[in-house]
Amino acid sequence: MTPVTPLLGRDELVRQVSALRWFHRIDLGQGVVTPGLDDTPAKLDRVRLPADLRGKSVLDIGAWDGFFSFEAEKRGAARVMAVDSFCWNGGGWGSKAGFELARRALNSKVEDREIDVLDLAPETIGAFDVVLFFGVLYHMRHPLWALEKVSSVTKSHLILETKVDLLSLNAPAMAFYVGDELNHDPTNWWAPNISGLCDMLRAVGFRRFEITSKPAPWLYRWIRALRSNGSVWRESQRGRVSLHAWK
Ligand SMILES: C[S@@+](CC[C@H](N)C(=O)[O-])C[C@H]1O[C@@H](n2cnc3c(N)ncnc32)[C@H](O)[C@@H]1O
Questions:
Q1: CB of 135 closer than 6 angstroms to any ligand 1 atom
Q2: Is the dihedral of CA 49, 102, 121, 43 positive or negative?
Q3: Which of 139, 148, 185 has most ligand 1 atoms within 8 Å of its beta carbon, as the pocket-test mutant?
Q4: Is the pLDDT of residue 3 over 80?
Q5: What residue spans of the chain are helical by DSSP H?
């Protein structure tokens, strides 16, 4: 996807990149990688994005700087749409400027729509072969409703990455966060355990699941929890999961 003739010279690209705050680490070519807060390459490994997306339509919900949209395009997707609302509208510490600069630097054709998860509908944006929903579910006040909307624009294959909690409970359960209890971020509301997550996905039409990345084993989580400032039991219950779901 690196253009033969870069649209921006290296010095100008470096200047524009350093003027922004980045969430994703995106390789823009010419030896320039955006200094994102997120370890995006590690997340890419965990989510197991298909290596070959040729001919597929892909929707990236909560795209922010767009790393995963550009990666889907690089892997041959016929059409990619990036959607976001909160950060793109200035609600967070980032903005849409990173996405726009990266799209320009990569000479990318990724489409964009500023739309809230709860406004996703096949009538307005269509339905997509592969839908990415990474790092957004715990930001939803109404997670089951959000998954219903995500399902409505998914033809078949959803790839989801999220925070999970209450990991020692086998029965489906979901933790609710008061104030900024989770990661000091008041925009975090809920995290299910893995069984609760799969049950919610079943309730919105998904039938088959493959977990591609599980939370760390309990001993590691307990050691991490003992070193944290919060409640040791609550901290020990938390982790992240990535899964693929099919209808
Ligand atoms: C933690 S970031 C995840 C970014 C990216 N998907 C990733 O995994 O690296 C959460 C993203 O979800 C977006 N978001 C939060 N609430 C949203 C909503 N109600 N509708 C659309 N996007 C939302 C934020 O703007 C932000 O870009």
A1: yes
A2: positive
A3: 139
A4: no
A5: 10-18, 40-47, 67-74, 97-105, 122-125, 143-152, 194-203, 218-226, 232-236
In tens, the pLDDT along 75-131 reads 999 999 999 999 999 888 889 999 999 999 999 999 999 999 999 999 999 999 999
Alpha-carbon distance of 36 to 20, in angstroms, equals 10
- Tokens 């609550």 belong to 234
Q: Is 84 in the pocket of ligand 1 (CB under 6 A)?
A: yes
Using the structure block, give the residue that is written with the tokens 């624009």. Answer: 153
**Which residue, judged by its Cα, is nearest atom 2 of ligand 1?**
135
Q: Which residues contact 11 (CB under 8 A, 6 or more apart)?
A: none
The C-alpha angle with vertex 80 and arms to 78 and 82, in degrees rounded to 5, equals 180
Rounded CA gap, 35 and 22, in Å?
Answer: 6
Contacts of 5 (CB under 8 A, 6+ apart): none
| Residue 168 CA, ligand 1 centroid: distance in Å | 27
Distance 143 CA to ligand 1 centre (A): 13
Strand, coil or helix: 79 = strand
For 182-204, write each residue's pLDDT tens digit. 888 888 999 999 999 999 999 99
Hey, what amino acid is at 207? R
Separation of 116 CA from ligand 1 center, angstroms?
Answer: 10
